[in-house]
Amino acid sequence: MRRARAVCVLKATQLAVYRDEIYRLHHANDALAASNQILRDALGAVRADCAAEVAQIRAEMAPGFSWPDRDSAVRLSARLEELRAEMAGMATRLAKTAAERDRAIEERDYLRRRHAHHNTSGKNAYAEHRSHVNDEIKKVEAELAAELDAEAAGPGEAGPPPNAEGRAGAGRSHSNKPHKKVWHILDRCPHCRVRGRLGQGRALTSLCNDFDGDGMYIRTTAHIGYEYTCRACGEDSRSEFPRVSGTSFGRKALGIIVQLGGKKCVDADIAEIFGDVFGFPTGETTIWNARRAAADLLDPTIHFILEELKKAKFLGIDETPYSVNGESGYVWVVRTDRATLVLAMPTRAGAVIAEHMSELLHIPVTTDGYSPYLTYFKILQRCWAHILRDAEAAYVHADKGDRARYLELYRKLLGIFRDAKRTAARTAGMGGADEATCLEFEGRVMDVVSAYGDHKFATTLAGAAPNLFTFLRYPGMPPTNNDTERDIRDAVVVQRKIRHKFVNSEGMRVFSAIQGFNSTCRKLGLVPWKCMARIAADHTFNIFRAGPEMQRASAPWDDTITVRHEACVDGIPVDAPAGGWDADSLARLAAGVPDIIDTADMDKSTLLVLKPHTNPVAARGQPSHDAPDNLPYRRKPPPTATA
């Protein structure tokens, strides 16, 4: 196999060299022809000038003419000799150019013959196989059409009943032989709606590969119809086949391809699954054509996703680098809890926001500190997770003498974040905090900025301070961008090593449509392949209005977890009150324990957890110093539920 590949690569290289040489000779031939024409034109002009001068001399030498003087005659004779010498030189150059052109033509013809020989002897095995398969499909369709024409009694006969099904007969060994025949017969003219006046004409066939019923194997179905001519209105019509444009796969198979393409499956992997699991060997190009056809069908769905984003109260947006045809590209993700919009773009410029997100700029958005977000979006919440990570990095990379001070600043910043979350929980029912409260928190952040001095993190924190407490004024707005980064991980990062999907703009479009569709279906609890099959049948189907038949099936057993309510402080359980944990008891506990978190989102089915003070930096292998390395924000809380 390796030797065959090497031979194919060598022959392909030779073909490229021969092709380039032919192109070069073509250009040389054109240049020589142009030069030849220029010489011919110049020679003609010289001949015309000489003829005019000779005619003048002959006229002057007519009977009765006398030369004015001897010097004029000598001058005219010298000029005539010069013109004759110039004509001889141009004739020589013309002959030389013609000889060079003839040699170039001979060399071009020789290379053409060699190129044709190599092109015939070194055909790609895949191209041969694809050509063979296409010939087989055409042969099957021709045989079916001939068989149906022979069976038809003539125009006006009823033929097989509408949507009749029949098993394909035995006796022909065919790799693409259909397993089943389905007739699509018209009994009413679609134009004048008259019944029984259709004249049956030429037979039509179409092969479709799809799952047979509820089975897991793909079978080939021959859809058979006819061309008709109405005797009442004279209009022509034809049977309509239930097929997807651009691919030979049916609706269910197309849905499976889309769902597999949403995970870390390249076209070769999907083709292998279709051959080994579904009993239908196929190639990468066939899978790629199916994904492209699915992306065309998903255009209305992408519009529905965009409309859902327009209705959202808050948005999350982020971007991540991606290799686009060997160069740096970016994938943008705009998300809510119900929808995800994926945009694969060759650039990270703000023009992407202006062009593709112009209708979303008025919605509050949570994001990182990328400057185009600050430019285009009107209401912005800076991600606290990024800020705290930068503060921790400043502590970790600080000199030994400054570590204690930077740790204290990190704790102050973390305390501000926790106080802000408590304030957001307390003011959620009142429509959010007032401007004075936000300015107070911003002032506390600026105090931390001044304590950092000339550290580069001080500049970052000062620029982020005006947008760190937007979530206080908009109840329910997340203070971090973690959900968006999780969407990027699920929809994009798992695909990052599949480079060939972004070879061109068409691959980027297909990737964006399929990834956004799969991510949205997962958020809605829908089965992607079922939704794709429904969209293939009805392009206007809205996944946000899908019925229970599209939902994921629940487990046949009861997997309900009984939660035992428990509160822990530094890993030590806190006894619950007599009536159990309710909103008032949680508030009292939160007021008494300063390190409590997330009390606003807790209800009777949620376990109250107080994060312990641990040493995460030492746990990651960092050297310990005199100052305690307590960074509770990066540590996981103790278990919150028991079965």
Q: Can you describe this structure in just a few lines?
A:
The protein has 643 residues and is of the alpha/beta class. Helices cover 50% and strands 12% of the residues.
Itemize the secondary structure elements and their pairings.
Blueprint: H1 2-60, H2 70-121, H3 125-151, E1 165-167, E2 180-183, E3 198-211, E4 218-230, E5 236-238, H4 251-261, H5 267-276, H6 284-297, H7 299-310, E6 315-324, E7 327-335, E8 340-345, H8 351-356, E9 365-367, H9 371-376, E10 380-382, H10 384-396, H11 403-427, H12 435-452, H13 456-464, H14 470-473, H15 482-491, H16 505-524, H17 528-537, E11 567-569, E12 572-574, H18 583-592, H19 616-619
Parallel strand pairs: 2-4, 6-9, 9-10
Antiparallel strand pairs: 1-2, 3-4, 4-5, 6-7, 7-8, 11-12
Helix pairs in contact: 1-2, 4-6, 4-17, 5-6, 6-16, 7-16, 10-11, 10-13, 11-12, 12-13
Structure description:
The chain has 643 residues and is an alpha/beta fold. The protein has five domains: 2-121; 132-243, no CATH class; 254-380 and 483-550, no CATH class; 384-469; 554-643, no CATH class. The protein is built from 19 helices and twelve strands. The chain has helices at 2-60, 70-121, 125-151, 251-261, 267-276, 284-297, 299-310, 351-356, 371-376, 384-396, 403-427, 435-452, 456-464, 470-473, 482-491, 505-524, 528-537, 583-592, 616-619, and strands at 165-167, 180-183, 198-211, 218-230, 236-238, 315-324, 327-335, 340-345, 365-367, 380-382, 567-569, 572-574. Helix 10 (384-396) packs antiparallel against helix 11 (403-427). It is flat and about 135 Å long. The two termini are 55 Å apart. Mean pLDDT is 75; it is low at 117-123, 153-159, 161-174, 559-565 and 594-643.
